[in-house]
Specification:
By secondary structure, the protein is of the alpha/beta class. It is built from five helices and eight strands, in the order ββββαβαβαβαβα. The protein is globular. It binds flavin mononucleotide. The site of flavin mononucleotide has 20 residues, from strand 7.
């Protein structure tokens, strides 16, 4: 499989041996609007389609070779709408997960992201990477503490874009 870049455009696509040309798909849910900026930045950097999780249909997923799934972390896991989509992801599709979260300790974020990863892996869907950054916690009454205020920031957006580009490269190399 190879990736192709149309000259003069940022639009990158995956050419499969079968000849399909299918854009990556980024699926997100954002309860308080932090993760949406990350999802948009990722989609822009790899020319992916971008869809809100509860709007995704099986037709949107059919034939995809690379799908990214991300949301805020709520009650120590991704939003339920992402879990509900796992059964619709085509076998053979590579995936990555991403999040913004109130807690920043690596072990805690890994555990939270691990739940969605586990469900994907139970279906033998390959997870090729995970990424996260702090997100301003707007849950009442935590909002008054100003936890992670100003995040995601521009550095987070840049990191998210670099991560998505790496995911596309890994997908294209396999
Ligand atoms: C209802 C609610 C529950 C949350 N639960 C957690 C949690 O369990 N762990 C955590 O690290 N952050 C938690 N947070 C913080 C969010 O993960 C963080 O603010 C994230 O950036 C929100 O993303 P969003 O703006 O895209 O919805 C919670 C926030 C809300 C609003």
């Amino acid at each position: 499989m190879q990736i192709s870049r149309k000259v003069g455009q940022t639009d990158m696509q995956i050419n499969t041996p079968e000849g399909y040309i299918m854009k990556p798909l980024i699926i997100y849910f954002s309860r308080t609007q932090n993760t949406i900026s990350l999802a948009e930045a990722m989609a822009k950097s790899v020319g992916a389609d971008l869809l809100l999780a509860d709007k995704v249909t099986e037709a949107d997923l059919a034939g995809r070779r690379l799908v990214g799934l991300g949301s805020g972390i709520y009650w120590m896991k991704h939003h339920p709408s992402l879990f509900e989509l796992v059964d619709k992801i085509p076998v053979g599709c590579k995936t990555f997960v991403f999040a913004s979260s109130g807690f920043t300790a690596k072990a805690v974020v890994n555990m939270a992201q691990g739940r969605l990863k586990h469900k994907l892996q139970q279906r033998h869907i390959e997870v090729i990477g995970q990424w996260s950054c702090p997100g301003h916690d707007k849950m009442y009454p935590v909002v008054y503490l100003g936890l992670n205020k100003g995040r995601p920031n521009q550095q987070d957006i840049d990191d998210a874009q670099a991560f998505a580009s790496r995911m596309l490269l890994i997908c294209s190399e396999n």
